[in-house]
Amino acid sequence: MPALASTAAMIDAIISEHHQVPIEKIGPTYARHRARILRNIQTASDECWAMRDLPMRYFRELGLAITAGDKDTEIDAALNFANEGRNGSVYIPSLDRRLAWRPLWDINIQHQAQPTESAAPVYFSTWAELGQRFLRFFPTPDQAYLVDLFFELGPPELTDDDPGGIDAWPGRWSERLVMVGAIYYEMQAKGDISAMVPQRAKYDAARFEFVREEMPGASEQETMPRYPGSANVWEIY
Fold it and tell me: Rounded to an integer, what distance in angstroms lies between the CA atom of residue 237 and that of residue 202?
């Protein structure tokens, strides 16, 4: 695995290369420093995530099976949807039906009001609990269906682990962009005024290069399916 293919490795690199601490001396006493650096890496990652329309920002899964009589279907817990109510959708190819997103509380009210309702799903929402993430449907599926998922993703939620989420970034940009920004915010946190200005210029140059490299043409977002408008959603069911 490349040296900076994990968030933990990036933290080690910032401690050893920026703070000039020998790698063999990095241990439990640096837990507080690691937590601060992790926050700074997260800040840089969040700031740059939406600057380019890269495939890493979109999730597609085709042919996910949902079960008859089960209103919930488990999906990848690591998915961090940017806004499931705006971009992307759940689609049932066999019915040529794109499900409409509703807030979870609305879906729950529908289930409480019609607990025995069973039919082809029309609405969906998402929810998470204890490290798991689910799709919830209404009505409860009356039979097994295969569904296609299309979602825009938010920035990865990073952890001090291997890989720790930084692997969501294209390899070279995790180092050339995110790490450069994290070092700038590390300087800011320490109040290193004299070094902040040139590091900020380096960070701005990296962001410009990141955006400039994007190829022209239809963006990934432009090809994402859209939800049906609220005016006709209720007419479906």
Answer: 54
What residue spans define the domains of the chain?
7-53+157-212, 55-154+223-236
If one counts every other C-beta atom within 10 angstroms of the C-beta of residue 102, the result is 21
Contacts of 61 (CB under 8 A, 6+ apart): 75, 148, 149
Dihedral through CA 8, CA 12, CA 17, CA 18, nearest 10?
Answer: 80
pTM above 0.70, yes or no: yes
Geometric angle at alpha carbon 64, from 61 and 65, rounded to 5°:
180
Q: How far does CA 231 lie from the centroid of its chain?
A: 29
Q: Quote the CA–CA distance of 82 and 87 in Å, as a whole number.
A: 8
Task: Indicate the helix (H) or strand (E) that contains 72.
Answer: strand 72-75
Instruction: Enumerate residues 6+ apart whose C-beta is below 8 A from 128.
Output: 77, 134
Q: Could you read off the pLDDT tens digit of each residue along the chain, which spans 237 residues?
A: 345 779 999 999 999 888 888 877 777 778 889 999 999 999 999 999 988 888 888 888 999 999 999 999 999 877 788 777 777 789 999 999 999 999 999 999 999 999 999 999 999 999 888 878 899 999 999 999 999 998 888 899 899 998 899 988 987 899 999 999 999 999 998 888 888 999 999 999 999 999 888 755 545 554 544 443 333 333 333
Q: How many CB atoms lie within 10 A of CB 229?
A: 8
Residue 144 region by backbone torsions, left for phi larger than 0, else alpha for psi between -120 and 50, else beta? beta
